Each structure stands twice: as C-alpha cells, then as structure tokens.
Amino acid sequence: MGQQKLLLDLKGKPVLQWTIEAALGSKLDEVVCVVRELKNIREGISLNHEKLRWAMNDRAAEGQSTSVTAGLKVVSPQSEAALFLVGDQPLVKPELINSLIDLFRKSGAPIVAPTFQGQTRNPVLFHKGLFPELLKLTGDGGGRRLIEKYDDKAAFLEWKDEAPFLDVDRWEDYERLLQSH
After folding, report:
1. What does the alpha-carbon distance between residue 114 and residue 123 come to, in Å, rounded to a whole number?
2. 105: which residues sit within 8 A by CB, 6+ positions away?
3. List of residues 6+ apart from 163 with CB closer than 8 A
4. Which of 38, 65, 84, 119 has the fewest CB atoms below 10 angstroms from its CB?
5. How many CB atoms lie within 10 A of CB 171?
6. Structural domain of residue 76, as residue ranges?
7. Are 173 and 163 in contact (CB under 8 A)?
8. How do residues 165-178 score in pLDDT, each as one tens digit?
9. Measured between alpha carbons, how far is 15 from 9 in angstroms, rounded to an integer?
10. Looking at the predicted structure, is the pLDDT value of residue 81 above 80?
C-alpha cells in the first residue's frame, strides 16, 4: 500500500487500535502486540492497559512466521494457548475471540479456528503443546501449515458474518472498510 496500513485512520482510530481493543475487551489473559517498528506504532497508538505488552519483530521481512515467533517468545509461560490475531482486521470483535476460547475449553482441540463459508480464517488459537512447532515455522505461511497438518484434530467455528475477517491489504480494502464500518 506504500504506507503503514496499521496506522490508517478508521473512524477516528488507527486500524491496529481497533484490533488491540477487541483483544483487550475479550477473555484473553494477556495481549502481546508484535510490530515491525515500535516507535511509529506507539506514536500512533497511545493505548496503555495492564494486559497489553509490545514486542518487536526486527525480522518481519522474512515473513509472517517471524511475528508468530516474536510473540511466542514473550507470552507468559503459564499460558495454556495462544490466539493469533492479525493487526489489519479491525472489525474483529471480542465475541468472536471469546467464542474461540469457549470452543477451545469445551473441545480440548489443539487448534481452534473460525471458518466463513467453509474457509478457515484468522484469528487462530493454538494449544501450548504446538508452540515448539510454531517456533520452527519459516516464511510467510504462519500457522496455516499446522492447521493443515492437524486438521483432523482441530475444532472449527462457523461464523456467519464476514466482517471480522475483512483485512486491509489494498487501498480498495481500506475504502470498503470505511464504507462498512
């Protein structure tokens, strides 16, 4: 997009701030926000919350997996799982996050993910037993490879509304978000 999409204004707040606030408003015990460049993000987002911590990913150019690794390295050792959100999905809501957590607790599945019209979407929750495999990921695949590997053991939550999964990858996406929000 030619500029920092996470700081684009969406109804008076940066795109990333909407995602962080949804996470903070959910049942998550802690929120670790992994960013490529902390200074600009912190200038644009002045959120302070006891559950919120920031982590730097100075290897972001190597792919999405490096953000997963950077986040996992600072997650509390007491965590029984980690839920990975992407910062450019500002319409994600605490209800979706809480529904994934509830399904995780009820099902005992090592991976819990939402689906929309049969397609797996973000955010995705991984049990701590998969952290070693997540830490070995490389490139841009993120956790998708593990979802495919453990598909038969995963729990999926069909979500009827596409809005939480809309992301900002192109200017057209941003324009669509401005109109839908």
Report:
1. 7
2. none
3. 91, 180
4. 119
5. 12
6. 5-180
7. no
8. 888 777 787 787 77
9. 6
10. yes
